[in-house]
Design a protein that fits this description.
290 residues; alpha+beta; 3 domains; eight-stranded antiparallel β-sheet; 21% strand; Rho guanine nucleotide exchange factor 10
């Protein structure tokens, strides 16, 4: 057996001891003289096992930090990551989406986000992980795009789509505005607006078609293609389009993370901010980050 295997033996025995004590407790009647010592021994072993797991997790995190520092290969980053109290919480492959002022997608870029206990880093990987797990291969290299202290990162959540299920079937309006979490006061943030604008247009058209339908009902004569049945088809078609657009918005928001990040100071020395939008590979990944 290797030295590593011998060193792992005591750690591997702890779960076996815990299972043994649990089994002994099940077969020790209440009031028996051995029951209290067994309970105390079990509690002590469980506490020790938790401490061992925590130490192993910290060691794995420190090892991961060293891998990241080596992969970045930048003097600034090596200094940043050399802080002994800094550790990696998680890292994931994401797709950064860049929008124009109308909310239309201009381009997308593959990124790797590293969430440390006090810093958020964004990098471009030269080779993407096949499984998208975010684990850093030993030979992988990254180009650092930016790093921001975690206390300066603001998370912006899309509010409209979350409320759709609780609102009426065809709500009067969807503003597409953002619900801002811990954001600076007196600032309004708009999300990728194309889907929201499409939805507003559909709702506007539905309102007009409903008015037209009411007018058609009041017609005295009969006219081809201008009757209540045709008007109802228009209404039903728009309602289906609205439901489809709402689902598109919900699907987009399930995997979208929008961050407000500090930029360079302007000419007058005031701080500026920019927005970065990332799409995770799954809704579960987004929930883990948020």
């Amino acid at each position: 057996m290797t030295l590593y295997g011998l060193m792992m033996k005591p750690i591997q025995r702890f779960p076996q001891f815990i299972l043994l004590l649990q089994d002994m407790l099940k077969n020790t009647p209440a009031g028996h003289a051995d029951r209290l010592p067994l309970q105390m021994a079990l509690a002590e072993l469980e506490t020790l096992a938790e401490k061992l797991n925590e130490k192993k997790r910290e060691a794995d995190q420190r090892c991961e930090i060293r891998h990241i520092a080596k992969a970045m290969n930048e003097r600034y980053l090596n200094k940043l990551l050399s802080n002994g109290s800094r550790y990696l919480i998680r890292s994931d492959d994401m797709v950064e989406t860049v929008y124009n002022e109308r909310g239309e997608v201009i381009k997308t870029k593959e990124r790797r986000l590293f969430l440390l206990n006090d810093v958020l880093m964004c990098a471009t990987a030269n080779v993407r992980c096949p499984d998208g797990s975010g684990n850093v291969p030993l030979d992988q290299k990254f180009l650092l795009k930016w790093s921001v202290p975690l206390s300066f990162v603001e998370v912006l959540e899309f509010g409209s789509s979350e409320d759709m299920a609780d609102s009426s079937r065809y709500p009067a309006s969807h503003s597409g505005e953002k619900v801002v979490i811990n954001a600076k006061p007196n600032k309004l943030y708009m999300g990728p607006g194309q889907l929201y604008q499409d939805l507003q247009n559909l709702i506007h058209d539905l309102s007009l078609v409903n008015q037209i339908s009411s007018l058609i009902h009041s017609l005295k004569g009969n006219y081809q293609n201008v009757n209540s049945a045709v008007a109802q088809d228009w209404v039903s078609g728009l309602q289906r389009l609205i439901l489809k657009k709402e689902e598109e918005i919900r699907a987009a928001d399930r995997c979208r993370i929008q961050l407000q990040l500090p930029g360079k100071h302007d000419k007058s020395g005031r701080p500026t901010y920019f927005s970065a939008v990332f799409n995770t590979l799954s809704p579960a990944t987004k929930q883990s980050w948020i």
